Amino acid sequence: MTGSRLTRIGLALAAPILALVTAFIITSLVLILAGDDWLGVWSQILSWPSNRTMVNILNSATVYYLSAVAVAIGFRMNLFNIGVDGQYRIASFAAAWVAGEAWLPGFLNIALAVLAGMFVGAMWAGIAGLLRVTRGVSEVISTIMLNAIATAVVAYLLRKVAVREEGSNIISTKPLPESSHVPGIPFLGGEVYGFIVVAIIVGIVYWVLINRTRFGFDLRAAGQSESAAVASGINVKKMILVTMLLSGAIAGLVGMPLLFGQDYAYGSTFQSGLGFAGIAIALLGRNHPVGIAIGALLFAFLDQQSNPLQILLDVSPDIVKVTQGVIVLTVVIAYEVVRRYGVRLEQRQVAAALDPQLQQKEVSA
Amino acid sequence: MSVATDPVTNVHGTPQGRIRLGWPWLLIGIAGVLVIMSLLRIITGVDDLSSSGTIRATLIAAVPIGLAGLGGLWSERAGVVNIGLEGMMILGTFGAGYFGYFYGPWQGVLGAILLGAAGGLLHAVATVYFGVDHIVSGVSINIIAAGAVQYLAGMAFTGVPGGGQTQSPPIDRLPSITISGLSEPLGEIEQKDWFFVSEFAAVLRAFVTNMSSLTVIAIALFVLTWWVLWRTAFGLRLRSVGESPAAAESLGVNVYRYKFIAVIASGGLAGLAGGFLALVAANAFRDGQTGGRGYIGLAAMIFGNWRPGGLFAGAALFGYTDTLRLRGGGETVHALLLLVAVFLVMLAVWQWRQHGHRSALIAAILGVIVAGIFFASDEIPNELATMTPYVTTLLVLAVFSQNLRMPAADGKIYRKGSVG
Predict the structure, then answer these.
(1) 3-state secondary structure of B177
(2) CB-CB neighbors (< 8 A) of B398 in chain A
(3) From CA B241, how far away is CA B409, in angstroms rounded?
(4) What are phi and psi of A105, to 5 degrees?
(5) CA distance A148 to chain B (A)
(6) Residue A221: is its pLDDT beyond 50?
(7) Alpha-carbon distance B403 to B350, whole Å?
(8) A83, A84, A87, A66: which is closest to A140 by C-alpha?
(9) What is the rounded CA–CA span in Å between residue B169 and residue A335?
(10) Cα–Cα distance between B248 and B416 in angstroms, integer?
(11) Which of A114, A210, B234, B328 has the smallest number of Cβ neighbours within 10 A?
(12) Is A170:A162 a contact under the CB 8 Å cutoff?
């Protein structure tokens, strides 16, 4: 028994390690072919991060984590919510506007703004859900279109409500009142976003919801086999819609750490592209809350550690995007290769175990 | 003329006859579009709706979308969903920029195709050989391509005169074709503003004036794709792999080989689409040049029901709406609202007669709202005008999605030898 468990753990670890090694080799090959100092690049990236970088890694991982959980909920149901990008941008704008207007004092204002963001994110994702359920439009295409539409809508609304800083081209929503800033958590001499707590809670709720509730069971069932789910009385259409709404609501949280902990307004410089990173990280973490956390930390680590490459070695930090993309692809391939190997191993074991039994039967007969 | 498709069964299980679009119908369709454009021009007074300049710009906007969609068509007909088209297009823009600047424009075309095909090869290895989920592989390819191209462009063009971290220096133009004996008289007719005749002249003029040789090649590729996939044994086998790989294999078709060929061709076409952006639409490689056109190409192909003719119409529609907002901005797009309103009302009537009372009601309400916006305002704000092609895509898909039929084994992972 212990032997087979050891094999199983070994197999589970083999895939990510295989993927990381492959990504390392491919990235190095690209660097060598391009004539860059590949050893220098790796010694920078793999060096122990400074305290400040460590704080940045945690902060950036917080945002990635929320984005990846939003994507992962859809994935568990076999829904590809590529629209997290548009959902979090339009939701962040809505939340920033609500918070900037400051109808309520202090904490209540934060709560209202976060709820507004989640609501808008859910509604934006809901459009795709509704189109899928009523008109059969693939959510892959509709969410991509909705991303572009969100960009246009936000640009338009931003111009309507924007305040312009003196002598600057950057327009943004009205800054949040001082009392609505979410204080950071002191860590290694820096401050980590207070929203890291929210991210952790989201992770726990996600795990409980998926693994310990009837809803989560239905969701996984519908994701694995739609026909089987229908046969067991699950209303798949409703599940699709609810899953999209949930995914959108969490996508609505993605921009909140930035809004309440760093930027204090939504402007044309608000960080974009987080949704796509979320897709990659959800795939990397196999949709598991802990796996996603590891993936988010890995991506944030690569991002932050590669930042000084341009100054130190005159190498474009974009090289780590190649690494990240290759990791995502190879991790999936590696899992498949390892799975095939595992299946073969099992078949051989079963055959070996059955063999003597067969002989015994023949003897007794 | 067109290929007969078997009656298909829609989601509700009722048999449904497919409309066969032969040449006469195609011509009537084109004439109908021209009539609508003439009417719209006269009613709204916006001349730019159908000028030959607009049509030419439409062609330039439509070709990259069409080529990307054609790439999607090859791959999905063989059963592989290719959402990595965007990444392969990005590779194509860089291939065109690099080989175009350092070696010459035709080498640029070749470079675009080769780099795109390399992306296709990667997708094929991941999805066909390793059985990775098609969307997962496509998304990763988009990430890898974007990162690799940013990195490589920084290496290749920094310090080159006229180039920089994110763009290549200007590339020499590909030769373009003008038939001046036709172009000028047609231009005169276009100026007359005659109903229908002027529109017809404008369209013809766009095709004989300053037409890039790459546009001609792109149109030829459409015809070639149709011929290869629907008129040759090779094409029949390729499509059979997308419909039922198990049956194809039992008849001796090498499923993996056909899928590989299809996906690599798909990458090459997407790469060419990117190359067109760098060589014809602009005259240099720029970072972020594709702007999601790979995804729109995919949507155009779905809109076109996985067929070259439909894809062509879809690409033209997206190219046209995109051109309108670029040329006229809010004012021209505003004129388009009227068309949308009329279309929605017509849809409502049609749905009502099909006993789809609820969707008829929704369409009617939307139609009234759009018409209301049209009459209540003078133009669409420019920021909102940018979303025209995307809203069009959503609207069109929402209306037609249920009549579409994708290859039966599209997106399904097939293991060699998994049946008998």
Answers:
(1) strand
(2) 131, 135, 137
(3) 8
(4) -80, 155
(5) 7
(6) yes
(7) 14
(8) A83
(9) 43
(10) 11
(11) B234
(12) no
CA distance B416 to B161: 52
Q: Chain B contact for A90, CB < 8 A?
A: no
> Residue A321 is nearest to which of B131, B139, B143, comparing CB atoms?
B143
Find residue B120's DSSP bridge partners.
none
Q: Pick the residue from chain B with its C-alpha nearest to A158.
A: B383
Instruction: Say which amino acid occupies A99.
Output: A
Question: B195 — alpha (psi -120 to 50), left (phi > 0) or beta?
Answer: beta
- Cα Rg for chain A, rounded, in angstroms? 24
Q: Residue A38 is encoded by which pair of tokens?
A: 């590949």
Tokens of A364: 């007794």
The answer to whether residues B396 and A131 touch, using CB atoms and an 8 Å cutoff, is no
Q: What is the pLDDT of residues A145-198, one digit of tens each?
A: 899 899 889 988 988 887 776 666 778 888 888 888 888 888 888 888 989 999
A141 and chain B: CB distance < 8 Å anywhere? yes
Q: Give me the helix-helix angle, A274-284 and A51-76, nearest 10°.
A: 80
pLDDT tens per residue across span B37-56 = 777 777 777 666 677 778 88
Could you tell me how many CB contacts below 8 A there are between chain A and chain B? 144
- Contact (CB<8Å) B387/A322: no
Is the predicted pLDDT of residue B10 greater than 60, yes or no? no
pLDDT in tens, B327-354: 766 677 777 788 788 888 888 888 788 7
Q: Both tokens of residue B292?
A: 């999601």
- Residue written as tokens 């066909």? B128
Residue B11 neighbours by CB distance under 10 Å: 7
Q: Which of B119, B59, B58 is nearest to B269 (CA)?
A: B119
β-pairing, A171-172 vs A163-164, is antiparallel
Q: From CA A288, how far away is CA A220, in angstroms rounded?
A: 13
The predicted pLDDT at position A64 comes to 95
Q: How far apart are CA A134 and CA B206, in angstroms?
A: 40
Choose the closest CB to A135 out of B148, B154, B398: B398
Running DSSP on this structure, what letter comes out for residue A56?
A: H
Instruction: Report the alpha-carbon distance of residue A97 to residue A108 in Å, rounded.
Output: 15
pTM: 0.85
Interface of B with A in 122-181 (CB under 8 A): 122, 126, 130-133, 135-137, 139-148, 150-152, 154-155, 165
Q: If DSSP codes are grouped into helix, strand and coil, which group holds residue A329?
A: helix
Interstrand relation of A190-192 and B8-9 (parallel, antiparallel or unpaired): unpaired
* First-residue to last-residue Cα distance in chain A: 30
